[in-house]
Amino acid sequence: MPKLSVLMLSWNTSEHTLQCLESMKSQTFGDFEVIVVDNGSTEEDYLKLKNGVGKLGMDNVVLKRVYPNIAICGGMNYGFPFAKGEYVLFMNNDMIVDRDALKEVMAAFSRDARIGCVVPQVRSWVNGPTEEVQPVGGTLTFYGTLVNEEMVKGIFHRDVTELACATGGCFAFPRRVLDELKEIFPPYYGLFFEDLDLAWRTHNAGFRIVYAPKSIIYHKGSASLTANNAHAGKQKLIARNKYLTYWRNLRVADFALVLPFMLAFDAVKSMKQTIIDGNPEFVLSTLRGLTEFVLNRDRVSVPRRGGLSYLTLYVGNPFRAAGNWTKKV
To answer: Where are the domains of the chain?
Structure first.
């Protein structure tokens, strides 16, 4: 059995998937497999992917197909049972993997048996590799945002460092941790905040989350949403899943304390979007997301193992707190 299983989805983005797989052929860590789930692509794109995988000559790639598209959570949950590795790395398919990336992920796990999640350094790919570092984790706030002042300063790019929370363009877990959590990605989420929810539950279960900067992966960004013209409804899902994530991970009394901060933040941001940015649809989308949260919060389980000590009141610039910052290495 392979030591590591890499799991990715492909939705009418066969070209990106094949480029990602091609970059894995030169890995210095060889004991891995790749599970690719074609998640509701057209027949044409699926056949392009299938034929392309055959031409790569990689006998460690397993291709599965599900139709119609079942979003990120459904696709990853579908693919997970096919993974045989002791460790599982979930990643986007629009990524290019540095030759030492997988080796450094596994090296980080070897430091401590309590490490439950490893996040590599993710840099932007813009017509080629860049040194722009994308956010991969930090600390959740009372406002429903993610911040990490120390990472913004760049000091995390030296050695393996502990994080409070992680975002999941690419992150890895021991199988034993995922088995203990029982649920990987909440099916109702679809996409957005599913990564933060999984990282939060990992932390709540007593495991460490670490950032491995020597593992470098390049990310193009939003390839599937762009290819499928699926940006519509994005803000509604973000708002809904943000409140669901806090609801299911906090005790009811703690959620009640945090809720006014989250609502106030969304109100201020909605005013900014409407008055300054001329985007009144943002307000309507946020309200739709809040409505869906209220009406459908019973569609997710509620482990409620988190506490207020996991959150910070610091927000910095409130309009950049949830955005992408970059920092040259």
So the answer is: 4-227, 234-304
Its CATH architecture, for the domain 4-227, is Alpha-Beta Complex (3.90)
Residue 123 has phi, psi (to 5 degrees) of -110, 155
Tell how far CA 290 is from the center of its chain: 22
What pLDDT does 319 receive?
42
Q: CB–CB of 300/248 below 8 Å?
A: yes
In 77-197, the DSSP E strands lie at: 87-91, 95-97, 115-125, 129-133, 137-140, 146-147, 161-163, 165-166, 170-174
pLDDT in tens, 60-112: 999 999 999 999 999 999 999 999 999 999 999 999 999 999 999 999 999 99
12 or 231, higher pLDDT: 12
> Residue 206 is encoded by which pair of tokens?
């007593």
CA dist., res. 90 & res. 136, Å (int): 13
Q: How many degrees, rounded to 5, is the angle at CA 137 between CA 134 and CA 138?
A: 120
Contact by Cβ (8 Å): 17, 36: yes
pLDDT digits (tens, 9 = 90+) for 107-129: 999 999 999 999 999 999 998 99
Backbone angles phi, psi at 191, to 5 degrees: -155, 160
